[in-house]
User: Fold these one by one.
Assistant:
Number 1:
Amino acid sequence: MRTLEPTLAEHPFFRDLAEDYIRLCAGCAKNVVFKPGQYLLREGHKADQFFVLRAGRVQLQMEAPGREPLTIQSFSEGDVIGWSWLVPPYRWAFDAKAVEATRCLALDGACLRKKCEANHDLGYELFKRIAAMMERRLHATRLQILDVYAAPGR
Amino acid sequence: MPRPAADLRPAPLAAEPMLPRAFRVAARRRETHDVFTLELEPADAPGEAFAFEPGQFNMLYVLGAGEVPISISGDPTRPGRLMHTVRAVGGVTRLLEGLKKGDSLGVRGPYGAPWPVLDAEGRDVVVVAGGIGLAPLRPLICQVLARRDRFGRVSIVFGTRSPADILLAKDLERWRSKFDVDVLLTVDHAPPGWRGHVGVVTALLPRAAFDPANARAFVCGPEVMMRFTVQELAHRGLPAASVHVTMERNMKCAIGLCGHCQYGPEFVCKDGPVFRFDRIERIFGVREL
């Protein structure tokens, strides 16, 4: 039976991570599939997973009463979703909805936290990668706020 | 108010670079709520082809109102009517928007340094466009696709404000339908029901397939978008000398005489508007320029 280790090792987020660490992470992973319209995570719910996208498309959304959900970003193959499993109180801050049939590896957040506590080298490696991802997303969001394509004065 | 064409004396562009030639609107179409395309032909020689190179621009003169520099958006491999895709954002461009089939306007050009398409032969090509920036890149894309076998992988990465702001949609669909071109499109803001990418154009660049050691990137869009795009391309390993950008500054003469478009030691009208990025890298982030 093919294990999840090669799939994890091929994903850009885990690329060049030591084999031992890949094995540790794969021990927390399982394959999951979402149909279009299904939610991967909902704002306020317990953040207990970390999604590694293999195929499909997911939109990150925020809801406000009386308004249509606002789509902030979309993610597809090669992306990862969710870092709230790392930060107390471990609650999602957004909704994430599949807009296409989506295949992911879902890594159990509590399992990963436990392994990171037990192996700080693994924890440091994962944190470095997540911090880089957060920095890029923050940067992209700032650029988005600039609304660079708006007409002057709009 | 536009004046009749008879008030303009047709003249060879090269011989009298400051003298507009009379053109007529042969066709016009709306691209988005504030972007439109004009097809123009010389008033004295309908059907005469307008020769230009990708990336060059013309000064379009709304009679009695003023001139604006507008990039040519036509296909240089299929000479025919002169084509300009324009965003109505100022006094003159709003008057251009109001022109109808048969109306007259003045044209001076073509001017400026073109996209170095020949230099990209044998290499991967990455085209990154933001908003109306797709229009000046369209001639380059047409030329690359007309000689597709001379290039490596070709990626077109386009970011715009919203789905309603997607211009040249038919072209994008046509290019996307080809099996040897990657077209990636994203919008900054999406309404409910949009199923495409959402996010800034730079977020799509990791998905563009190219060999940084053998690629050329062509970038056009708002300056801040180009700034972050160049950073992301550098992050992918593409040297500044492999990136070309097109700059925009207020222009008057368009032939390097008046200095209105001076950009550090360069004149955007004659040294640009297309610049190899390493040539302007030092001054690119200088806010005062």
Note: Residues 22 and 102 of chain A are 22 Å apart (CA to CA).
Number 2:
Amino acid sequence: MRSLRVNRLVLLFVALVVYALPMVIKNPYYLNVLNIVALNALVVAGLTLLIGYTGQISLGHGAFYAMGAYVSGLMAIHLGWSPWITTIIAMGITGVVATIIGIPTLRLRGHYLVMATLGFNLIVYILLVQLDDITGGPSGLPGIPSYTIGKMVLATDFRCYWLIWSVTLAGLLLSINLIHSRVGRALMAIRESEVAASCLGIETWKYKTRVFVLSAVMASLAGSLYAHYMTFISPKTFDIFYSIEVVAMVIIGGMGSLWGALLGAAFLTPLPYLLHFFEEYKDIIYGAIFMGVLIYSPDGLVGEVTRFYRKKRLESRLRELEG
Amino acid sequence: MTFLEVRNLVKNYNGVKALRGISFDLKEGEILGIIGPNGAGKTTLVNLVSGIDRPTSGEIILKGKKVEGLPPYRMAQMGVARTFQHIQIFPEMTVLENVKAGLHTRGRTGFIASLLHLPSVTREEKESTHLSLEALALVGMVSKRDWPAGALPYGDRKKVVIARALVSQPQILMLDEPAGGLNEQETQEMGELIHRIKGMGITIMLIEHDMDLIMGFCHRVLVLHHGERIALGPPQDVQDDPRVIQAYLGEGF
Amino acid sequence: MENNLSQFFFSGIATGAIYALIALGFCIIENSTKIVNFAQGDFLTLGGMFMFTLLHALHVPLILAVLLAIGATALVGVAMERFTIRPARSKETVILVFITIGASIFIRGAIKILWGKSPKSLPYFSGDNPVGILGARILPQSLWIVAVTILVFLILNYFYRNTRYGKAMRAVAYDRRAAALLGINVEKMVMLSFALAGGMGAIAGVLIIPITTMTFDMGVVLGLKGFAAAVLGGYGNVMGAVVGGLLLGVMESLGAGLVSSTFKDVIAFVILLLVLFIRPRGILGRGEGERV
């Protein structure tokens, strides 16, 4: 219970920083990057529940991100429905698909699970490219309507910043709630020992499927937000590299922590933008940083932060003792 | 009253006969010791009763219901709890979290309630913490409640795992070598712990190599050898049974 | 129609042999470290690119060029192990696998810098007159590919079953610490496996550069296909890699020929998923549950 309170306080602090930032940062380009950070953080938070807490890997969440974007975008364009409604419908449809995919897939382990989820992502990606009558194919789907609140159209980076970050912070709050509960303990127990967990009465397949669906629905929500924020989507955003990137954020942030999700997204999302200056060398620099963090800091950024914090605390204790 | 009945239980692993038709029964509140040389089929028997493995043939009847082949979580929901020879603690969870996970079958909070942190969740959490601390008190581990379980010494882990199995107040508790790997003093502590559990009136199946524990606690002892039952009866009778002596001598005991 | 069928089948076998070769590279790393090496596809590109430079710019004779390309790529494999896998502070599978993804991005970036973005091509080893087999017309290069795959399979099979190094490597994968206690030089075995995997990738690259022009990012798709083949057959199983590769190639080819060429990958991956749902450890994989 104590750590639930601590985590909520940290979230409050994060929220204050997030809502204060636009007063300092006015450049729409930076706001755009921050918005993408938030969208990725939402996907990564869901994946942290699946990978970090339940121990099940997925390299296919780009597909669910795509479903959120395309289902909601297409419905809003062709049916003229409010993007709020289509976002929720997309979450529902993604949830159903994730259940159908999840039940047989989550029986697989290790490399087999990696392949199956990758394969699912590849299938969805090819369909997005090839079914161009519906999806617009490789050249993308333009003209997706923005969200509106009353008469206000959420069309600028600044307006969308409030919406997207609020949704992401809410997603983080719900995830924090989840891990500090009976369900959260069941998920962790599955990660630590599936056999022991099931002998405690935990229906492992049910919990694995549900957390998979939850993470897919979170990715779908992020995808819909992306579509109605950017108003243009193309398959490239949703390929397996996206799936790999978000899992890398989970790992680089620190696998067992939701704050790691936020840090991982905040670290890895802007990296390609920053490396743009290096032109043709940007790929090898990106690859080198990617490897370097994993080689030298396997506990992730959260691990580094806690280590730093512990060291400081120890130092101040020592000073107290000396003084 | 017969609580658990095992009839003609057979288990083959890829042609290897691990159990060759075991039958016995267990009365409510009884403590049944299970002994036998390594490879006799003791853990296989526990795996079958706890639902981890399906029997090749035979029946397991729990309170009049046929339960063989049910998954482990169903068995746990019906009040069958166990510990493992290789402990299977949740190393990255705290001691308290480990024990609270043992309360899974008694809790009701689902995904939606957890996500929204409804008031019922807070209530249930308080209750779980309370019950878990009681169980930790029973095994003498309250002071280490916030330790990561993986950092505990071996003997302490065995205690936590027993608390985890006990906290849900199971109807049957199967202990797979609780004293295995413990030193003399720890074994004695384990004996005292089993004594306290016995006082709670829980039906127990106790697999052990430590004969003092078996002789001291069990109402009856089942002796397995090469997957067959070679004796079943009060400890004293079993100890004097020539077939049992032969089995152990043959293995160099 | 019958001729078509035979044509689809045999061209599927030829593609499948390449997948098998790549899958064998995955297999080698699995059999020493239990990780998936996502840079395997980029080893292939590297091998092809080395070959291109040796033949085209340096005019080295064919056989020598092949051997040098294999050797150079094997060295890249060794370097990868030495500078990324070995110093890794965590030996956890997920982290090591993602390090190989980083390595893959790095190698691809390096190839782009060194060889540029334009596609590279080379002439066939032995002419381009198709050979007729059972009504199908096959390129001689495809026969080379199939023959080399069979040869590599036989050698690897022998290596794992009958040589000290092969057995030691598998022991390392099975239990690192126990292998070290048995006096096996674990680091050397892992390094050797990366050299082998690099060489294996180069063999595939050298063989296909005449058929498909080589681009810097070719390794992504082919690496995925090889991984899929290895999983399909049963991950880490040498025989499974070959069976999985051939099956994937034939499925794709038949799917493209009989159903739709735009959806050939969809067909192949859907079948792969269905196979996994029925056999969670691949076609030849043995079921091993979690031990208690």
Note: The longest helix of chain C spans residues 2-33.
